[in-house]
Amino acid sequence: MIDKTLPNGVMFNTYPDSIGFKLSDTIKLLKQPELQNAFSLFYILPTFFQSDLDRGFSINRYELNGELVSEQDLQTLKEMNIVLKFDLVLNHLSVRSPQFLDILEKGYHSSYRDFFIDWNRFWEGEGEMGEDGYIIPNEAHLNKLFMRKPELPILMVRFPDGSERPYWNTFYQQIHYRTLEADDINHFRMLPPEGIKTILAKFNARITAGKDFHNIDLGPYQDYLEQVVSIVESKRRYLGQMDLNAESEVVWEFYEETLKRLADYGGKLIRLDAFAYLHKKPGLTNFFNVPGTWEYLDRLNTIAEANQLTLLPEIHAQYGKHLHSAVAEAGYPIYDFFLPGLLLDALDQGRNIYLLRWISEIQTQGINTINMLGCHDGIPVLDLDGFELDSGYQAGLLDKADIEAMIERVLERGGRVKNLFGPDGKKIAYYQVNATYFSALGEDEQKLRLARAIQLFMPGIPQVWYLDLFAGKNDYAAADRGGPAGHKEINRTTLTNEMVTTGLQSVVVLDQLEMMRLRNTAAAFNGRMQIIDTPADELQISWSHEGDTAILKANLENHDFTITHSSEEAGTQLYDYTKH
């Protein structure tokens, strides 16, 4: 058993540039009188590092992003006694990382060739070579693949000799082709100026339109087609997140260097992004297969402990798989991805039954959690579902009808949806709904207050997304600008310093900060939690420690609630959040 005691307190969560222009603007906010003693932890998302897409989760280098972050920022946060949390994006690294660029430059001779997963070498002997140059795994293997997009997770990578190799690419990928210029082809023998003009026009029209250019009819210049295609392909550029080959010791050297660097930045908590995808083996699922996933996690934990770091494995999976229990039983804190949906159900339906079941499980199993309302990602819905195990169907925290109804309510309120896919490209499940939590609640300020209060009275560290604090609404323009992959931008609006100043005068913002200050400072939350019996449309939670008590009494139908705090030093104080 691994002892992973989490620090107590409230955690703020932003990108470095979510507020104002850079991290120093967020630090100024944290110093404002209204936020005094409201937060003691800070989760800074990975545009903190050098990255190129997926809003920071496609990291090039774990060096400071000098446009947004400075050494002085880190020193200031240290002086403020703010505990820092960072990401280690465990499963993948950007195509623009030094390691992948080395492959593009040196091909088979690169010392990093095995740093990433060569698809064909991985599946050798486990499938048939397809006409596009990559192995199609046997059907038994395909049926076990956990897919994040509708096609096989492959990026075809062109080596310097013109050959192409498929590399494993679970998440985002894109290939860009540069339009041709006359200098690219004017050295062709016996190609007249009119031929250059024709070739440029036809190729560039296809490239600009994003259409295939490999079989263009060049008329009298058809003999040049293969040469021109080769030139265009040689100048291709990539965007994407390439899966790391954790069977390579070079990758483990990289993890050691990175964890030490994160500790040097002042990090204490490290979120292992996408860790369940890391271990891959033919014949097993590519998501949390065992025992390999545990072996990797134990090895990472040894490195983390040497750097005084606490690991927070991030995993999205159906409740019915009980992976959250397995991670917790191994001694690791878990992310409470169930709470956002359970609160939506409780506040929309006016019932406590499903929320109380989850609270009871946390208490009886002694699970350490970090919880949230909204976050940089979507609102989890897949997580609430049941799952068919070999031992039989394991129920979810909500039944499918309630999950579907909740999704429809959020979509009716303007949310958008993210899906998962099977190997045949068909959607197999909703994954997340994308909305600000305030908009998901129907933009009802009283419901937001109560959701926040319940979150703060839950076991674990309450993590607060900056946009939820300021009652942010769905940003449809940002989501539309992001194109097909822009759904997450609906909940990532950048707040100007002027918007923050105005927001700090809002009652719903100040009420949340008042509750956070209590949660962050009251000794009661270091003690024992108790659920008091109530009717199904009410909720009562108390915390007590050495004479200090805090009690939440809430009506889940009309969303009125009070908080009572008592201590020997300050006496009894009532926080009344009933509607007037």
UniProtKB/TrEMBL annotation:
Keyword Glycosyltransferase attached: yes
Keyword Glycosyltransferase: yes
InterPro entries found in the cross-reference section: GH, O16G_dom_2
SUPFAM superfamilies: (Trans)glycosidases
Keywords for the protein's UniProt record, in alphabetical order: Glycosidase, Glycosyltransferase, Hydrolase, Transferase
GO molecular function, one term: glycosyltransferase activity
Signal peptide extent: none
Name assigned to this protein: Glycosidase
